[in-house]
Each structure stands twice: as C-alpha cells, then as structure tokens.
Amino acid sequence: MPSEQLYDDYSYEHETATPPDPDADDFYASQPNFHDAVPYSAASVATQSVRAPSPPPAPVLDHSHLRPGNQAALLSHERTLELYRANAKKTQDPDLQFEFAVFMIDAAKNLPQPVPTLGNVMDIEKAQQKREDLIREATALLKKLADRGHMPSQYFLADCYANGIGTHKNRQDFDRAFPLFVLAAKHGHPDAAYRAGTCCENGWGCRRESAKAVQFYRKAAAAGHPGALYRLGIAELNGELSLSKSPRDGVNWLKRSAEHATAEFPHALHELALLHERGIDNVLFIDYEYATELLAQAAELGYAPSAYRLGECYEYGKMGCPQDPALSIHYYNIAAQQNHRDACFALTAWYLVGSPSVLPQSDTEAFLWAKKAAEAGLVKAMYAVGYFLEVGIGTEPNLAEATTWYKNAADQGDKRAQQRLKGHGPQAVPGGPGSVLLRSVSDEMSTSGSGKNGKDKDCIIM
C-alpha cells in the first residue's frame, strides 16, 4: 500500500472510543437473536434493535480484460485493487469513489490471514498492517465524501464506526457514528433514520431520548422502513417510548411492517401471527389459518422463531395444522440451520424415532443435534447429551464426558441430571431414570403418524 496520503481533508483520529456496554447491545451483532417469541404485553424484541443492511457494492471496473477463448485471463486481487484505485482517483463521480471505498472495506474483511506459527510472526504483522491500511484508506475516502454531503457515504461510514471498523482498537464508536446517522437521515436515508432512532432509544452516542427516537422512527416509517414500522407497532402495543398504549394503532403499524417485510426485518409477520393466535379484544380476532400463513411467510424469509413454531404445529397438530412429519422436519431444519437451539433438539427427537419415507432413524444424527443444542445452552439437551454418552447412543460411551454434561445440566436445575449424579454416578448400562425406551416405530405410530404422542412414548429422555 502506498504510504502517502491518498485523499485530502482527512486526519485519522486515534482517540479512545466509548462504546456502549457490549453485554447490553446486540444492535450490531452479526447474528441477532430473536429466538424467543415475544407477546405484545411483554418487552419488545425491537428494543434489541436490528442492524440495517449496508449499501451493497457495485462493480465499477471495465471488464474488457476478461477475454474469451485462449486469451482469457483473470486479474490478481492486487491488480484489481490498483485498477480500481486508479479509476476512483481519475473520476470526480462520488458514487464511483464510494463504490471503491466499499470495495476496500470488503477486501479488508476478506483478506486472508496466515495461520499463526512460531516462524511467521512477521507475515502475520504484514497481513494485519495491509488490512489496516485498506481500512484507513477506505474510511479516509468515505469521510471526504461524507463531508461533501454524499448521503450513502455518510450512512456507510456511520455503519463502519458502529461496527468497530476504522476505529481506535476496533471498538464500536457511536460518538462518531450517531452524528453521521443523523446527517444521512436528514438527507432522506431511511436506514439512517432508523439507526438514529435506535441510538436515541438506547443512548448510544447521545442522550437517551424517547421523543427523539420516535421522531426518527416516524421519519423512517414514512419511507416504508419495516424495522421502524415494527418498532412503532410494538411501542404502541405496549405503551413504550412515552407513547400511549394503543393496541389498535400498534396492530396497524405491524400490518404495514409485514407488508414491507424483508429477510432483515421479518419480525412483524411473526408478531402478527402470535396476535392472531390469541386475539385482542375488539381489535384482532383469532384466526389460526392466517396465523400459520404469516409464520410461513416469515419462515421463508429465514426467520428461525417462525420456522420453529411451524415445526411444532406440524409435529403436534397445533393451530389447525395436520400432523405432517415432512413439513415439521422441513421447518425445524430451517430454524436449526440458524442455530435455533430448540429446533436442533427437536431434530434430535425426530432422528431418534425416524419417520418412514421422510427421515431415516439415526442415533448418530440424534446425538450430534442434541450436542449442538446443548452447546447453545439448552439445559434439557445437556441432560440428553449426558445420557447419550453414558449409555452410548449415537456415540462411544464416555462416562467422564457424560458426568460433565450432567453437572452442567444439574447446575442449571435439571432434576433428572441431579438424580443421575446421585449415588454411584452414571453407569454405562441402559435403563434407569430417563432411559430411551422402544426407539423403534410402534404400530400405533405407523397408523396415526409421527407426532407428540409417538415421540413421548418412544423417547422418554426428551
């Protein structure tokens, strides 16, 4: 990387950032967790605000160098970067310069880092320096563009600061992010208005002010931002953000959010489904069929809590759904692939008994899914893993490891694990409290379909 200053009007500030308490902030988490269904009378998941998507990079380079036939050639990453840089320097087009800055940030994120060994300390330092140089150059260019009023640069630079990119010691810096969110919001950027609202609501880089948060949310909502519409809906349902409690208005906000739902913001679909499941007097009637439709829409957008709920509905025949092993497993799998711990454990139960023509019985898969749920903190899964290891279901017996899992579960109040630890401790023999009994599919299950009754009968451990 060239050492000279590539862009003017910029000085890199090395002041100490003052990010919010990381334990209280999952606004910018890479994997936001909305696994728990939240009734309208409870605290809102929207207060754990969701990170809005960053502007995607777009290609700028002339790709004429990619010639067909025997002359075909791909440029190296370094050469591509240099051509991109030269192109950005030649033009005065702020959009092209912005795209180059985004390209550099993405390149820095994906820059391969050597595996640490005793002999490559210098290589690691060089790779880290290269990454820092790219980020420094990108943020310098973004700041230059932001100072000249380029709205996408204002938002993207704020997003970088909020995620600890280009900041002192890579810490989240809302003190610099918040003013840029506000600036981009004033220029009409819906995501920026939403993010400014969450900052005001939570006191990130500014004072905690509910009234200001509502102003920003309303500005984003006017542009159809699903996250802002959802937050206003939950606030009206619960009487939050200094707003009067108004279930009717809250439902209207949620309906608008559901109409604009995206993979980033599917939450209104799930919330409306829960509301239609139980109804609200004089506001919303109970409608199981519509509730399952909403859950299906959210599940197709990849929302794990909705997929898990549908898995339950098709497994046990809830909310008017037929018992359908194929659909139950399908929806559990959508949620489990996103590390939804209850869905992982639900797949454990399915693999223990299997389902004819749908899912082959597999103790090994049952153990692996149970372990995944246990590692995610599900207490009953910890007990199950302990039992699998004690008896040797889907894995080789290992009494020491079984005892560790039993202790983990017992420490969190699991009575069955406490019972297994009493007396002489785990024994590598089948039977006893919590045994897995009759794991083959019974005649009753074959005729009535796999469901809760069948699984409870065949799998007492669950």
Automatic annotation (TrEMBL):
Cited InterPro entries: Chitin_Synth_Reg, Sel1-like, TPR-like_helical_dom_sf
Residue span of region Disordered: 1-32, 413-462
Biased composition, class Basic and acidic residues, residue ranges: 453-462
Keywords: Repeat
Residues in the signal sequence: none
Cross-referenced Gene3D superfamilies: Tetratricopeptide repeat domain
A Pfam family annotated for this UniProt entry: Sel1
SMART domains: SEL1 (SM00671)
UniProt name for this protein: HCP-like protein
Organism: Postia placenta MAD-698-R-SB12
